[in-house]
Task: structure prediction
Amino acid sequence: MPKPPSIKTSVNTFLRRAQDQAMTNTTSARLVFAMDATASREPTWDLATSLHAELFNIASATRLDVQLVYYRGLDDFYVSGWNKEPRTLLHEMQNVRCRGGRTQILRVLQHARRQISNEKTEAIVFVGDCCEESPTELYACAGELGLFRLPVFVFQEGHDPYAKQVFQQIAKRSRGAYARFAPGSAKELAALLGAAVAYATKGKDAVSQLATAEARRLLKQLPP
Result:
């Protein structure tokens, strides 16, 4: 009996297909990539950073433009320009260091809301482990994103129950998807990011081409 394809194989298979089609695609897809860089994420930060950068480096041929957003400290909120060059993204991510502070998820969603009027954006990816904010405004802003068809893919590191509840609602109201991954699990996060890249570059049908449990988990949540 043949072995099922590995997560790495599945992600790379999609990206190769997208690369083959890139020459016929004259426009770039845009993805906002937001990260919680507060102190609680420090133990697994280097692993996550290397993985994120590696995946987007592979995905560069899909004409994916990535904007890096992160928050940390008391009021540190950073937004990069749109990166067409993976090495630029890698350099920016490697220079980020975690600092103690409260979450600023609402600012992430509000920034995404402003992007709608500036340039077409296909998706938002948010990676975090906790939420220290009231859900009311978060849900309202996520609902606005859903109305404008800008889905949020929320990937939660760890098991915080309050964060899970809030993150699931943000994903649902924005017409996106939620998934949890174990701290330090490179395989899980790689598969989740691969699915998000697939959606941003080629849409929902491309996610269905990824033969991973993580992709199927996200696919079930995405609206028709």
Q: What stands out?
A: The radius of gyration is 16 Å. The longest strand covers residues 64-72. The CA atoms of residues 38 and 72 lie 5 Å apart.
